[in-house]
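Lab notebook: predicted structure, single chain.

Context: the supervisor wants predicted structures on file for every construct in the current expression panel, including those that have not yet been purified. This is the next one on the list. No modifications to the sequence; it matches the entry in the shared construct table.
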Amino acid sequence: MDLSYGPEYEAFRSEVRRFLEAHPDAPKAGIGRGALASRERALAWQRTLIEHGYAARTIPREYGGAGRAPDLLQSIIIDEEFARAGVSRGIAGQGPSMLVPTLLEHGSEEQKRRYVGPTIRGEMVWCQGYSEPGSGSDLASLQTRATDDGDSWRINGQKIWTSTARESDMMFALIRTEPNAPKHEGISYLVFPMSTPGIDVRPLHTLTGNAEFNEVFFSDVRVPKTSLVGKRGEGWKIGNTTLRHERNMLGSTGQTESMFASLVALMESETVSGARAIDSPVLRDRLGRLEASVLAMKYHALRLLTCQLRGESPGVAGLIVKLQGCELNHQIAALALDVLGELGPLHRDSPHLRAGGAWPYQWMFSLGLIIGGGTAQIQKNIIAERGLGLPREPKAA
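Prediction complete. Output recorded below exactly as produced.
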């Protein structure tokens, strides 16, 4: 197996390294929270990355992107070199990672010009209005409705588990507009400001102690007809485009590799009974098992990359990335907590914090990501039934 990229791409790798060496004060990549704590610094770094083609790389210039030609191997090399240098890849989140590619595929020209630029620069923050009480795994059963009100839509209902709703400027949401149509055919995809009268956001506190999620209530919320992305009633298809990009974001191989590298550094600096943690046979054995899983994930990603380069569909193999990545991130954080011993549970307001308390935060937060974006159980069912051809799971009586 030849895993080399060839002279042309190694020259590109050198170009990326020179860029990183020329920016020694670049924000560092990190685990969990705090990697880009300063908004002003994050926005400035994002502008630099776009200017040099290391963020929004393939988004056309007319929409504010770098306008570079798609090249999967160059994208992989950028990820590898930024991870190796421990440098932030810039602003991600639901807007740049999920909404922008959806708009580029399904949005109108006016929507692309209005939303893509501010979103990739980090100036416009988005949240996702998908899940509802009673409509999580069976998302197509959602009941939040929009009725035709002349030149606008009138929205009533509720969303839940809406991350960043309180900090967001805009929401992209799946809303039922055809109440009498089959459940997958009566949904539309709408985008609208969170400042619209009638929207009420209430925080939900989680295991981390923070309110990463929210409930969002809609009471006669009026949004213009131009809020519709694609055609009326085709929101399920468009929403699945967003979900595909969400799973790619949640199952980032580079993020997992970066977390593993942080774990190795932690085990080299922390001591257990007077010796380095990495020299402990028990902890070292666990580290080795995790490294094997990280390598398996990396080579699986290379297999998917090969499919993409050949123009082939990876099929359900793509779902494995999200399933494996989220569970592996949780296991990496669990080992970090064991290495820290009695310091492990500390994650705020203590002089003994390690990495700003990011490890316990990551352990708690990654538990939620195993559920979010399609639960591990749903992912396993799809892989088993569609990928392995196993019988469908019996319905509950």
